[in-house]
Automatic annotation (TrEMBL):
It holds the Pfam family Pect-lyase_RHGA_epim. Residues 1-19 form the signal peptide. Gene3D superfamilies: Single-stranded right-handed beta-helix, Pectin lyase-like. Keywords: Signal. It comes from the Eukaryota. This is Rhamnogalacturonase A/B/Epimerase-like pectate lyase domain-containing protein. One of its GO terms (molecular function) is polygalacturonase activity. Residues 41-263, 392-463 form the Rhamnogalacturonase A/B/Epimerase-like pectate lyase domain. The keyword Transmembrane helix does not apply.
Amino acid sequence: MRLSSVLLAVAGLASAVNAYWMGDIAHQGLAPFAGSGYQVFRNVKDYGAKGDGSTDDTAAINAAITAGGRCGQGCASTTTTPAVIYFPAGTYLISSSIVPYYFTMLIGDANTPPTLKATAGFSGFGLIDGDPYYTSNLNWVSTNVFYRQVRNFVIDTTNIAPGTAATGMHWPTSQATSLQNIVFNMPTASGVVHVGLFIESGSAGFLTDLTFNGGATGASIGNQQYTMRNLTFNNCKTAIIQLWDWGWTYVGLSINNCGTGIDMSAGGSSAINTGSVTLLDSTMTNVPVGILTAWTTSSSPATAGSLVIENVALNNVPVAVNGPSGTLLSGSSGSTTITGWANGHKYTPSGPTQFSGAITPNPRPAPLISGSQGRYYTRSKPQYESLAASSFVSVRSSGAKGDGVTDDTAALQNAINSATSAGQVVYIDHGLYRVTSTITIPPGAKIVGESYPVILSAGGYFNDINNPKPVVQVGTTSGQAGQVELSDFIVGTQGQQQGAILIEWNLATSGTPSGMWDVHTRIGGFTGSQLQVAQCPKTPGSSNVNSNCIAAYMAMHVTPSASNLYMENVWLWTADHDIDDASNTQITVYAGRGLYIESTAGTFWLYGTAVEHHVLYQYQLANTQNIFMGQIQTETPYYQPQPNALVPFSPVTSLNDPNFSTSCTGVSGNCAEAWGLRVVNSNNILVYGAGLYSFFNNYSTSCSTFTAGENCQSRIASIEGTTSNVNIYNLNTIGSQSMLNRDGAQVAYYNDNVNVFPSCVAVYKSG
């Protein structure tokens, strides 16, 4: 064989090895309510994009996004027209914004992330504009923008003159959205005004693995709450400008050669915009001012600008925290580590005490940390870059229909069992997979969804409130050993399902933790659920329960023998409105319990999770230990207290359910309402940011302001029984008079801790 032939053969082998499976597998996703011929997966090159670095690919990319009558300008939201827009490796020249429509995933080749490169004359608000201003308002209400992703890209604005305003990405979104593995390249000239990522509103959320190079600002961001993990900033004038927030958790920042690390001074001392920031497990190198704040002992609102820092290493950072009158916390021209420092209000365990200074960092249980720096364990969503397309097994190729009508139980189970036995990855093509008995996930399973397919429980098997059954069961027996990886799919219910436990986790994992990434539960509010406006309209002023809308027993149950589970960007949602209604009309759907963890061994990591609108509680931890929680978020059902939490689910003692009939004795106001967070007889529960919200009283928001007296409900968080090391940083509550109770007694009162919109306690230590 001639040398040239050998080189060609080697090049072909390398190309085959490096090819990303997503571009090669058969794409059979079905959107059953989108109309005949609707295509879920779209490769931008099939729509004319070249990716050659010289052709303007804007029109071709937007054509790939918009094809099929999708939810664009003027559309409120929909679940019926999902799309995956795939970008093979290459450089795509962009002259105006790419606009991902509602329910869109933009995914680049994970092995060789494609570059989106602006032309010199680029026009638009972001190379990717996630929510355009067609008018003076955003096209999609940012607090209702769900189910979208962008991952594996390089976004490059270096062709645009440094002094010309430019934004890499505009991303105002809410729950079940994510950014992952994106590099923002901007000019480094002295007069640069470019911004990498701009977020001005929403109710998110999670993002991870972003790198910002150059620019005036890496990320200019404001949202109700966020968990942001593993962000790197190199040579930005300011790494992060915190425009506003209620609560924000940064984990694993690496800020290098930037003028300022985090600027949270917006609004000034008389009207601070930033509610609270929690920063942990991070580094700053060659940064003159690490954090710039407007907080003082007399700033306003009283607890705004609350800041908690834990385990942050500094190298040549002369000023760690700078306030309006100068240094609040000194840094060093050498190397030092901030083990723990905070400002705001503290309860240790009583309070409030206003303070600024060192705090004792949380004792970190050894099972929760990894590496020599003592950081909490993290792991990004696996994308299986090294696997070939032949390593994936399609459930539709295995006989499942995904049409929302056919009983897919057997086909789905057979696909999971056979793929796992063969060491292959289960690929759930998009669809609604109706199941009439439990789907079991065995140890060793790896499951990936295409654009959030739905496993949809239906029928009488799941409809006995006295004999609940899991829809998806991980580990068939209590404490079964093994490891599982799940990503990018939804578990839901169809019609009345009074006994449905959407996810039951029995698996005991040793070594590398099991993981759930972008796996959500969705109870009602979407086409195919039979729990929409037509079936479950809201009925303000009435406490009558429509039994047809009792749609789930529990969202997720982690059983006593389970252990070692990593959860990232998981949203357990009972729908408050109909996503597929043109007006997003509110509905009333009943689901008994949110996330219940009663693992005796514990060891769980929750990054960017949210649990909303369950009757009895959102998060409940009982007889468990060793749990990390990063910026949890909850909402109380909008219909409560009509009916209140006494119906339609009676408390079950074996599940440690709250018994409001007894616990509300002597408590004034709306007491029998869902707990946002309840911790019972548990140890080492470490919460790094919490937003526990109660916005409504029987669908009226008149109760959820300081002027109204924050009287939507009486209580929202509870610590009960024998506990130790239950610590909360930046606890933010809305609509609840008591922010935190311990064994029935009020610990913190809302009016003692006024913040930008919530009330905030920067540091709570249980003692």
